[in-house]
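Case study: Response regulator.
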Amino acid sequence: MEISYSNKKVLIVDNRLEDLAELKMILGNMGVSDIQVASSVNMALALLRETAYDLCFVVFDLGKGSKNGLQLIQEATAERIRQFSTIFTLVVDPDRSKLLFGSLDSSPDTYISKPYSEPRVRFRLEKIMRVKQVIQPLDALLDQGRFQDALQMCPQLIQNYPALKLYVNRFRGIILLQEGLFNKAGQLFSSIVTQRDQPWARVGLGAALCHQGDYLNARQVLQHVIDESHFCVEAYTWLARTFRSLGERGEAISLLRKAVMLQPTVPELLGTLGSLAAQNKEWNVAVEAYSQAILYARQSCFQSEDYYFSLVAAQLARDSFDRDVEESAIRTLEDVIQAFPNAAIVQFKSRLMVAQVYRRAGAQDRADLAARNAFDLFCELELTEKAEWVEFFLEGMEGMAVEADAQALKQRVNRDSASLEWGRLNLQGMLAYRKKNYAKSLGFFVQADGILPANPSLTLNLVQAALEQARTPGEERFELLLRCDNALYDINYGALSLRQQKRFLSLSERCADMVRMMAEGKRKVEESV
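Here is what the predicted structure looks like once written out:
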């Protein structure tokens, strides 16, 4: 059956005008009339947010210091603007293509190489488009977010089209992980690896094992991917996580640094490296990582104010602090306000950290002035925001002229926060914890976290109660430890206050010790069988 291209919308991402013009001409000869172009990943993301394309051609190498084409697929996937029905074609040299297909859910659908030729382009497109025609109902369900319906459709597609078994099973694995069915996902990926070893299947298996807390076996699986497919960011991230979860931060940092050398423009990877380096007091590494994370996260879903505040915190923590560092820190705190212009919390935190920078520089008068400004901004916040950040606020006011006023304000905020549902639950959790009723305490913190997720103080309370509860023998013990590990992993350490950092490290070490003991016990049982 002849494939018509006349109604196809196409996006080409390339920074070389001659090559771009050549591909446009070839596609025009094939009947494509609706073609848009972008010269960078960020420009392409802006177009993908506005328009659904049938075909997207992405050049891997978009210039030194620029995000590569593979990152467009990764970021579009993370931002949930990638349509499963869109065919992503990566333009890359054949000898490098095998290194780029280790990703589970953000790999291209196919690839071509330069120099372009119409027969090769047509052959590649028609091959993948025929597959897409067959699985169009599955793509439609995935684009609609109907994952359970998509999962149920997969066996029927495999029965009707046995040649597409591997292709469809990849989607099955993605859905199983998405739905939290980690045991089933692990079984599926393991069977795929046994029948036909694929890097993406190993990544999926490694992720499933990590989600189940089987870090030692996950480590073996993921190391194999890195040895074979060097550009797979997910493999490095998951492998680093196995080391971090077992308390081996140095190994995790080393892995992430190697990954950054290979793909230096991935903001999520850089942010994770910065957080781990800060935990290990490797401040120079943290400063560089956070600086690059800020740069490459702009105009993407990875942009985060935490990167800015973490960078300044790392600069403050270093032994050397001269005028250049001071100016750099102040400039960063001005930049974060421009990046998040309507965020009152960001403005407050920025001024609070400006005060800390001036105090570190020995300019106490300027520090007091900035602290007063931060105090006024804090007063303008909503009650729930005040209650959320009151500990951070008070710690930042220590040693400032308004410290006494801050202490009095904290008492009022703590009293008033009892009127908030999450504040009341948090208070009940703390009271239960003091009475050593850890199960009850944990229940209160979980409810509070459901109302106010991702609050560092609340998360640390939850983890502390869960770790105490996990000391009690029972079937839920390991599940509690996994929840603690996941919660700690999601916290950006660099953006915490100094007291929160100290508490984080203590809880993280306790969690790692307990996870390691259980992992080693499981390994001994497996070896004895």
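For the exam, be able to explain this: The mean pLDDT is 93.
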